[in-house]
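Anyone have tokens for 2-aminomuconic semialdehyde dehydrogenase? Sequence:
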Amino acid sequence: TMAHSKSLVVLENFIGGTFVPCSSYIDSYNPSTGDVYCRVPDSGKEEVEAAVKAAKAAFPIWSSKSPLERSQILNKLADLIEHDLEAFAQAESKDQGKTITFARTVDIPRAVYNFRFFASSILHHTTECTEMATMGCVHYTSRAPVGVAGLISPWNLPLYLLTWKVAPAIACGNTVVAKPSEMTSVTAWMMCKLLEKAGVPHGVVNVVFGTGAKAGEALVCHPDVPLISFTGSTLTAQRITEKSAPHCKRLSLELGGKNPAIIFDDADLTQCIPTTLRSSFANQGEICLCTSRIFVQRGVYSEFLSRFVAEAKKWRVGNPSDPTVDVGALISKEHLEKVRSYVKKAQGEGARVLCGEGVDSLTLPTGNQKGYFMLPTVIAEVKDESCCMQEEIFGPVTCVVAFDTEEEVIKRANSVKYGLAATVWSSNVGRVHRVAQRLQSGLVWTNCWLVRDLNLPFGGMKASGIGREGAKDSYEFFTEVKTITIKH
Ligand code: NAD
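Reply: yep, here.
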């Protein structure tokens, strides 16, 4: 009906500094109500072609600006997003299902900080120089932006992860074509509205909305896009690797995880339990860094388990816009079904579900009955070979198992295809270092979780990715180095 269509948010692509309507659209759902509330352009080759063309045209001017000029523009953009922080947070929560509290305190502040961080770090890079006196030569390296960067981001931390790519890409002098997840495109579109005011020249940031199969793949296959920065699933990364191979593209791949927490007998449980609850269930468990395998040493196993389950039951699930709610809605109906199916499989294999899905009842407010909600779920007595211990579930589900020795737990923690993040809990400094060294994981947090210094490398081993992001790492990814020799 007209009344219905009027209330829909309709997004447009942002190409060459202009909002452009698309010939077809995808429905986007509000995960907390199950209603379609937004229409996202269903872009394809044609739209990607136009965006790449605009980005290519903008490259000569943008890349020749000084780092300081670019830095000032990034800072301005950060200020503008921060000024609208509440509107961005509301939009992110509605679009993604995450709690308003999480969007307000994590997603949007981090998006702002991503711009400030790279606005600053871009000013502090130096390059190498070496002398070869016997040959009368000096060698030095110079770094230059690569060209049009293709940026593809997922739905779990929409603006946070998109800006973690846009900021370093443009700070380095590249121009970009970004493709956010078709399920969470609203905040990227809102950011486009601020670009002109921030002083970002037309064509420097282009955003093309649509599905991975159409818009994403058109970007990956475009001959004039020499680098692709991708965050998403391992399966999609394999496809992107194949599709980009004929062009020898530079790839940065930030993928899934099956992250262990290792809790030794001497761990401080008063710190460990609340942090491990957060690491398991924050953002509905939809963070690549979330813990989903908790190994607890035999001596504290039963105490840990009873305290952990008692606390998990206190997490409130409900309307994401209610600031007292801890767990919002999962991204989609399909995803909710998938996450639930893992709990069923575990039960079928004889594991014990101690709280949550299928065990406790969930009461939802009237307006949220059709939302994609699920209680934080703790499963015990799961076999290491079980799909629940091997595959990324990406929901509020965590498995708790017992172990005896350090040697044993390292082996078990490493026996998955992923290698993104791990946490180690122990008050023995020697053990903490030993275990951290031997874990196959790009990030190891000991006695804490998700404490980040954006300067340092972020990324995964094994099926969790290729490459690292961070001050120096992103700079290196988004620039091409050249070695120049001068004979005097
Ligand atoms: P996804 O791989 O399904 O989609 C990610 C993005 O890729 C989306 O924009 C999607 O439209 C696009 N895409 C899909 N198919 C494509 C194709 N053939 N060509 C080009 N683009 C394509 O992932 P998702 O479900 O959106 O996100 C969840 C996944 O992301 C989880 O596995 C999670 O662990 C991972 N993740 C990793 C990190 C990290 O930093 N390592 C951070 C967040 C999320």
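The chain has two domains: 9-255+464-487, 259-446.
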